[in-house]
Amino acid sequence: MVSGSLECPVRGEMLSSVVPAKATGGNKDLELTSMDLAMKLHYIKGAYFFQPEAAQGLSIHDLKEPMFQCLELYYAASGRIRRSESGRPFIKCNDGGVRIVEAQCDKSVDEWLAMARNNDHMLAHDQVLGPDLGFSPLVFVQFTRFKCGGVSVGLSWAHVLGDAFSASNFLNLWGQIMAGKQVPLQPNSPAHNISQFPISISRKPFSLKKVDPVGDYWLTPNNSKMVTHSFRITAKQLHYYITTYCIHDPNKISDFEIILAMIWQSLSKAREDSGPNIVTICSNNSADKMAMLPSNGMTLSTVEADFCVSKVEIGELAKLIAEKRMDENGLIGELIKGDEVRSDFIVYGANLTFVNLEGMNVYGIEMKGLKPVCVNYMMNGVGEEGTVVVLPSNEKDGGNNGKMVTITLPQHLLLKLNNRLQIDWNIVI
Amino acid sequence: MPPASPDFSSSVKLKYVKLGYQYVVDHFLTLLLVPVMVGILIEVVRLGPQEIVNLWNSLHFDLIQILCSSFFIIFIATVYFMSKPRCIYLVDYACYKPPVTCRVPFATFMEHSRLILSNNPKSVEFQMRILERSGLGEETCLPPAIHYIPPKPTMEAARGEAEVVIFSAMDSLFKKTGLKPKDIDILIVNCSLFSPTPSLSAMVINKYKLRSNIKSFNLSGMGCSAGLISIDLARDLLQVHPNSNAVVVSTEIITPNYYQGNERAMLLPNCLFRMGGAAILLSNRRSERRRAKYRLVHVVRTHKGADDKAYRCVFEEEDKEGKVGISLSKDLMAIAGEALKSNITTIGPLVLPGSEQLLFLLTLIGRKVFNPKWKPYIPDFKLAFEHFCIHAGGRAVIDELQKNLQLSAEHVEASRMTLHRFGNTSSSSLWYEMSYLEAKGRMKKGDRIWQIAFGSGFKCNSAVWKCNRTIKKPTDGPWEDCIHRYPVHIPEVVKL
């Protein structure tokens, strides 16, 4: 517990647990796929900000109670990691529950959103699975009360359980139950696609990097201190970039791809070695918004540039990204089986990774009928090459196709990148 | 077990002999009266009607004699009816059902223990072993304050728990019986480990605006058997006050008593005690005769406190670090057995049929006079009772009693299932067990129920009830939504 100060405005943490309303029983076990195991050293953090009007009169009990019903339906989130006899991890749905953190913040919601957005990670509990692996919660939900009466809901979600879409579904389900809406029980979709593309070449996937064994302490080993920064790009700006720089096929380049290109080039200019030459893209096109079982259903692909990224036209880079993506799900599935299930890998930060959360329904959650004023997602336990998360933003100035971008990089690089982004693209950091 | 060897008693012939013997002794008076009545009838018939009329006329009846005889008869009748103890009826009772937000699965309990006792892996191991063998299920409940890591047992939280438990049970009781708060003449609240000022009974009076001339009592510190002590007190008060209603509230407040240290002897209650409470309406009003569920027949209280070991076997004290907890001694089961024997010795003559009492007496005389090596005769209480409600103090307690009283699995089913579903709710567990029997549709008019409770001190208290009317299912109560799942098989050791 840290006392309130300029650096650590979040304090007074109290932990408790919330469990499914009904006994899950039958000791249901969830198998972990290769994709799940590839992501096991990563953690997702989400922060949802609600204004005082939305949180007025809601006690901690009112916030916790819907979680019990939610966990009854979404019982996988209450499970714990166990290892089978072969050493392969799986999730035992034993009703261990979700950890709830109650905290206070000395600032108001508006003050927080106005300041430089480096600290959103404080609003979700720092989560690591292990060293007591079998007794570590997979999900933490932090309720932080701000000085003005507003509330932030901070989700910490172990990536081994599911991807960001699953995490967002889970919270949306909680929101629906809190609002008293009837939740239709969807049959659970079977475990997701390993790959729809046939494996033509057999090679090691570029998007994955094997790390030294971490044993039962599932966190990416890092040498540098990783920091996070978030900023918004308005829809108008994106439209401007696309039309200005991608003169050839403005309709073929998506918002995500132009952002990717811009950041890739700026980082290349900021780094001394003009790298990186390869980036990983993580996207999810088939996310089932109503699934009651979490899954890692994303598609991992890589883009390799055989030219100097910092010197080329941004339009060319965007075109490369759009056209030369190589799907690696099949390769990952091939790699992580047999003995390799016991090895440890990282995906985010093995290369500069871009996570596309554009299709995520983050503003689908409501508290007392009001949507959150801002939602942010970021990745924790990320490798040194860094990660960029792109999600939808809801600006108040009209158009709602703007994007929220959160970058996680080693501290020294992030400063340089921010400067470059301001110079190159007029992006307000 | 009869003094004969097991082979003999399993033979069919002896079984019929035993049945015949029981019938003869139990209905001895009837069997004696019948020949006498037959004799008189034959004599009357023999005399002939004319002789009887002559006999009648020869008795000179005088006005004074008739008046005196009538007064005498009326006087005797009045004295008899006045000195008969009032019938105490249990109109109905309500048990508290904790909300799902208080649920504590095994996995969560163990995880919290590991975090709270992180400096003492041995204590954690110990707790895990207890929990595995405890006989509790995955749906028992702890109050909200205990769900925090570490628990936050403030006085406010304790009062909060008391309010939720007691008021829910009372509201439920009012709804079931149609009782109006102003009609409560006697209020008894028992809660062993939480005793604030003003008392919990004052809290109830304040909430429901009970009458200013109510007779209220608050019993604290009397352990898990306090529920039956309250019933005994209510009974005595209802003898003194005619036409009255008494409400008894039995509960145990967990919040302030969760042990936060790591002394092993004191960790056991954390694993077993859970949230629960019951409110019971007793009455001596004749108008309740029709709708009352049970009639109180006997209450027998046995206190072994005079013995030092018994006195110290459940003891609340501070551990080496100054943390307060309830220490259970290793001879708990032995002392419980002794207390039970004492209690049985007193209750036996009140409830056992004549045949069992005679056998017991003969064996006793035989042991004293002829041969001390004869095995003591343990009377068969299954002949005296249809249902048994053994306080769900823990698996060991139920096992021990099942063995001592030679009860079948079905007899102790109510106790085991209550322990599984609700945990050890202390003084209210007997009422959850009664509720189980009712929910299963086993309660028929005329059934006799034996409630046994043990408590610190060391006490063993019993109450005997007789069912007043057959209770039909479905019943509302704490078992409403889960009775169809019971009975469940409870494994010896649950793998966590």
From TrEMBL, chain A:
Matching entries from InterPro entries are given as: CAT-like_dom_sf, Plant_Fungal_Acyltransferase
Can you tell which superkingdom this protein's organism belongs to?
Answer: Eukaryota
Single Gene Ontology MF annotation: acyltransferase activity, transferring groups other than amino-acyl groups
Spell out the Pfam families in the cross-references. Transferase (PF02458)
Where in this chain does the entry annotate a coiled-coil region? none
> Member of which family?
Belongs to the plant acyltransferase family.
Q: What is this protein called?
A: Protein ECERIFERUM 2
Source species? Gossypium hirsutum (Upland cotton)
Q: Which gene encodes it?
A: LOC107921138
Automatic annotation (TrEMBL), chain B:
**Active-site residues per Swiss-Prot or TrEMBL entry:** C224, H303, H387, H391, H420, N424
* GO MF term set: fatty acid elongase activity
Pfam families, from UniProt? ACP_syn_III_C, FAE1_CUT1_RppA
Which SUPFAM superfamilies does this chain map to? Thiolase-like (SSF53901)
Q: Where is the FAE domain?
A: 80-369
What Enzyme Commission number does this protein have? 2.3.1.-
Where, per UniProt, does this protein localize? Membrane
Where exactly are the transmembrane stretches of this chain?
20-42, 63-82
- Annotated family: Belongs to the thiolase-like superfamily. Chalcone/stilbene synthases family.
Task: List the protein's name.
Answer: 3-ketoacyl-CoA synthase
